[in-house]
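Data deposition worksheet. Section B asks for the primary sequence of the deposited chain exactly as it was used as input, without tags or linkers unless they were present during the calculation. Section C holds the resulting structure in token form. Section D is free text for depositor observations; keep each observation to a single sentence. Incomplete worksheets are returned to the depositor.
Section A, Depositor: J.P.
Section B:
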Amino acid sequence: MLKRVKKKFSEDEQGVTFKEFMDLQKFLRSISDVDTALSFYHVAGAAIDPGTLKHVAKMVAGVQLTDRVVDIVFTLFDENDDGRLSHKEFVSVVKHRVQRGLDKPKELGFAKIISAMWKCAKKTKPNIPYFSNDS
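Section C:
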């Protein structure tokens, strides 16, 4: 998957903007609704081509995917390079990312560190007579 991207974009230094990245994330977080919409296209016999993907992103997730992002998505997921995405190539892969836990934010331990610092501060607080409640 990454080899295809490196091969296609090896001399391209443009990258994607933060907005493009966030729009794609919003689209991917709506994958269940995207799956439903794409299944209607499949039943109707329509190909999931770049135009269809952009249309579904606009209608389902309310985002306008740029041509560049769609090109990257197709480079990543179009395994047989036919210019179309199948359910197997796209939706099932993205849905499985949820099962692998990539959709959930990772606990970095920040809350645990703050909790430990709070406990430590309570145990080691100095006894200052002016601020004591014992007066």
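Section D:
The radius of gyration is 24 Å.
Helices lie at 2-8, 18-29, 31-43, 50-61, 67-77, 91-99, 110-123.
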